[in-house]
Amino acid sequence: MTAAARAAGGSRARADPALAFTVALLWIAIGLFVLYPIAMLLARVFVDHGHFTLGGVAALVTDRNQVAAFRNSLVLGALVGLAGTLAGFGFALAATRCRLAPWLVRAIDVAVLLPLVSPPFTTAIGYVFSFGPRGLITYDLLGIGNASVYGLTSTMTAEAITYFPIAYLTLRPMLAAIDSNIEGMARSLGASRLHVFRTVTLPLCTPGLANAFLLLFAASLADFATPLILAGNTFPVLPTQAYLQITGLFDLRGGAALSFALLVPALAVFLAQRFWVGRRAFVTITGKGAGQAPFDSFSPPARAVLCGACLALTLFVVYLYALLAYASLVTAFGANETLTLRHYRVVFSEGLRVLGDTLIIAAFATPLGGLYGVLVGYLVAKVRFRGRIAMEIASMINYALPGTIVGIAYLIAFNDPPIAITGTALIIVACYVFRYGATGIRTTVALLAQVDRSLEEASQGLGASDATTFRRITLPLVMPAFLAALGVMFIRSMTAISATIFVVSIGWTLVTVKILENMTELELGVAAAFSVVVVVLVFVGVFAIGRLLRLARAPGAPAVAGMLSA
Amino acid sequence: MSGSAKPQAIGVSVEGVTRRFAHAVKGDVFAARDVTLDVAPGEFLTLLGPSGCGKTTTLRMIAGFEAPDAGRIAFGGQDVTRLPANQRGIGFVFQNYALFPHLSVAGNVAYGLRVRRVAEGEIATAVRDVLALVGLAGYESQFPAQMSGGEQQRVALARAIVIRPRVLLFDEPLSNLDARLRVDMREEIRALQRRLAITAIYVTHDQEEAMAVSDRIAVMSGGTIVQTGSAEDLYHRPATPFVASFIGRANLVPATIVATAGDRVTVEALGRRFGIDAGTRAWRAGDSARLIVRPEAVTLARPGEPGALQGTVAARAFLGEKIDYAIDCAGVRLQAVRYNAGPGDLLAPGATVALTLADDALAIVADAGMGVSR
Question: pTM for the complete prediction?
Answer without folding.
Answer: 0.74
